[in-house]
Amino acid sequence: MQLRPSSHRYKSQRMNLHYVDWGNPSAPPLLLVHGGKDHCRSWDWVAEELSKDWHVIAPDLRGHGDSDWTPDGNYTQISFVYDIAQLIHQMQLEPVTIVAHSMGGMVCSRYAGIYPDNVKSLVLIEGLGFSPKMVAETNAKPRHERLGDWIEQKRSASARQIKRYPTLEDAYQRMKTENSFLSEDQARHLTAHGTSQNEDGSYSWKFDNYLNTSADIDIPDAELRELWERISCPTLLLYGKNSWASSPKQDGRLKHFKNATFKEYENAGHWLHHDQFERFMQDLSDFFDQ
User: Residue 279's domain is classified under what CATH number?
Assistant: First the structure.
């Protein structure tokens, strides 16, 4: 990487949250928002290209990267939305362009539905969450059972020891196992910025273990679709053909976006912006030029 982003902090709900700023403050603002158990430096390749024409800001969501972990270990979607709203508000970024991946897309689509006038354009990389089928299966369980499951998951997470890798090389091998499409340089970069060294010399991922416990309380499914329908800006939905994620074109969710373009990537998984970088950047350029 030739450019080096500067590291900054902002306050949200008494927490110190981290973001990197790629400079060029006179250019239009653009947020890059990572997915679950990821970190802001996973955008470095994208940010380096975009920072020529944009003021690029990439936050670490709470519990991720170099941002604080929540004291109670609860990570709800609305808390993430609040954090993004605070970053945009405090830095006076509106109207802002947003590119978001996975869980980050879930967060930013909610924000764009709450504040449609604040978002100039929106790119969601597999950012709509679980398929309607999975949501229906979850909602079919009575609320008391879902809450009981959540309590048991929290208890299990509280007893779980943070995974330690003897060397950075061991963590890198784990990264490669998670996404076989990554090049060696990509995997090593993501590992270096996604881990911290423990006192005993071992390495651990920076995200909070409690993120493995999904919060049971979220916006009801019908109301979420109402938020999607409130999004007024041009929206680009991207999906990898080799991903676990459900295609919104096939499962019907695409119809809830009034001004959306859908594209599917061959030979790409959940991290398609890594897997097919050149095509992704070209699609971004074409979308922004519309």
Answer: 3.40.50.1820
